[in-house]
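Researcher: Here's a chain I'd like modeled. Treat it as a single chain, no partners, no ligands.
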Amino acid sequence: MARTTTRTAPDLTSRSYWNGTIKMSLSKFFILCVLHQRPMHGYDIARAVERTTNGCCSPAEGTIYPVLREFEEGGYVTSEAEVVSGRERKVYTLTDRGRAAFRVAVEAWMEVTRVLVDSERVVTPEVCRDTGCCG
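Model: Modeled as a single isolated chain. Structure tokens:
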């Protein structure tokens, strides 16, 4: 007998839903960003993202390695094993394709940022209350 799984629809009224969605996208962007600076291994990438974002994005191992695997499969990064203090670790390097992806990502995030800044002037809680536009 086939087992069916039921998926619960996300709660779009939940701040944690939106924070998680935004932070996952930001984590991918900032992983490209820090690798644009220099090759690094996973732990260094996570710490560099955390420093770069002032703690806003703190990707855990469970987040960072699937993203790095996705980037490697897509040809955006390469990895090379190195041994440090008897332990093997992978060092990830951005490829030319990864650098191009980072440039496109910067443009996309800048566009979104401009729209968000502009929309804040148009749609604020006060405007919604006064006009009734948001229900």
